[in-house]
Structure formats: C-alpha cells, structure tokens
Amino acid sequence: MNRMSRSINESFEYHKVAVTKAKLSMQGPHSLKLLIVAEEPSVRSEFTELCRRVTDLHVLGEAESGRAALDAAKSLSPDVMHHYLVGENAEAQITRLVLRLLARRPKLLVGERHHRLYPLDIEKIDYIEADGNYVTIRAGDAEYISRDSIKRLSTELADFGFVRIDRSILLNIRAVQFAEPVGHGILAFTLTSGACLHSSKTYRETISRILPWHHCRTGSDSA
After folding, report:
1. Region at 144 (left for phi over 0; alpha for psi -120 to 50; beta for the rest)
2. Does pLDDT of 215 surpass 80?
3. CA-to-CA distance for 200 and 164, rounded, in angstroms?
4. At residue 187, what are phi and psi to the nearest 5 degrees?
5. Regarding beta strands 57-63 and 32-37, do their DSSP bridges make them parallel or antiparallel, or are they unpaired?
6. More confident residue, 197 or 91
7. In what order do the strands lie in the sheet with 127-131?
8. CA dist., res. 201 & res. 213, Å (int)
9. H or E, element range at 59
10. pLDDT tens digits for 127-155?
C-alpha cells in the first residue's frame, strides 16, 4: 500500500463524519460536481476514489491537464475543477472540497416590495443590480429591493452560479437563454425572462472563467 492509499484509508472515517454533519444541516441533497485534474493517471485514480467515498461529492470525470479539463468542462459542466496539488496531502485537499460542499447550503435572500418582506429563492432570481445603498433584485416580472451591496453578494453567491458582469450587475448565469459578443470585449446576455443585459469589458476575464466565449467567432469583436 503506497503513501497516498494509506492517507486515504486513515482519513476516510473523519470525512464520512464531516459530511454526515453537513447533510444534517442541509435541506435535501446538494452535491458538488467535480472534474479531477492530475497529470499522473495513478494519482487521478486514487484521488477520484477518495472523492467518491464522500457522500455528495460527485466526480463527473478526470483530465490530465488544464487544457483537457477546459475542453471536458464544456460538456460536463462541473461545479469545481479540482487540480490535484502534488505537494499537498490528500486530507487537506478533500477537506477543502468538503468545506465547499458545506457552503452549498440552500440560501434565501429577503427582498422588500410594497412594504412587505419576501423570502426569495436564489435560483429564481434573474439578476441583481446596485441602486445606491440598496440593490434591486429582479426575478421574472417582479422587482424587490434589499439593503445590501453587489460586492458582498458577488462573494456570497459565487458558488450558486452568479457572476458579476458589470460594476453594478450580478447575473444568475442559469437565467441566461443565450449570450452573444457585440464588440470590444462586451457580451449581450438575453435572459429567459426576455431582459437583455450588456457586460462591461472590465469583467471580461471574470465572465470567461464561467463562459469561455473567446472561442466564439464574430466580425465585430476586435478585442
């Protein structure tokens, strides 16, 4: 038995307990979908086995390099592409993944409309827009306000598919029907609700981490 295998066996019980506690604090199953990236096939195989032993860590596939991972991600749509760190032990890496899993608890935002407070399911939110000391939360045809900031919410909601496309706009990527380049590093997002939002060139790299649109061909995009 090699060193990594011993590490896996010794840490398995600890992580099983940790994830059991995580499940008790969650409302239903919220698995973390993984794409494992490691150059050595044996390392990929053993680390993948460790992940599969942990409840709610779901391995979609493996890749030998970052480029291969990006190609695979287009069809697999993982929540996390985990690049195995050779100089760090397996326990520390799996613990970080468990913490990511814990962070995926269902969240609610509270919005105000007509002097009434409404608990809002974040999956049904289309986008959030800065409005002075408040934010405006848009969900379909409804509009709510909340005393919050785009900066704080962009961190809070990052693991739930929200991406900052402009200084004042936080977009739920799941609400997008399609996106198209409109020139100079800008994307136009058409939402399922019919709304259309334009990104800022400043956030091009942030958007590209989720949506690799630089592969698109367009005659008008000279960036």
Report:
1. beta
2. no
3. 9
4. -115, 145
5. parallel
6. 197
7. 116-121, 108-113, 142-146, 134-139, 127-131, 169-172, 162-166
8. 13
9. strand 57-63
10. 999 999 999 999 999 999 999 999 999 98
- Closest listed residue to residue 38, CA positions, set 67, 8, 63: 63
Tokens of 110: 């509270």
Give the ranges where the chain is alpha helix by DSSP (H).
3-24, 41-53, 66-76, 90-103, 150-156, 204-210
The DSSP call for residue 84 is -
| pLDDT value, residue 86 | 86
Tokens for 211, please give them: 């949506």
Place of tokens 């493996």: 62
Beta-bridge mates of residue 143: 138
What is residue 20's predicted lDDT score, i.e. its pLDDT? 32
Dihedral angle of Cα 54, 55, 60, 65, to the nearest 10 degrees: -30
CB atoms within 10 A of CB 119: 8
pTM tops 0.70, yes or no: no
Reduced to 3 DSSP states, what percent helix, strand and coil does the chain have, rounded to the nearest 5? 40, 30, 30
Give the Cα separation of 10 and 19 in Å (integer): 16
What does the longest C-alpha to C-alpha distance in the chain come to? 65
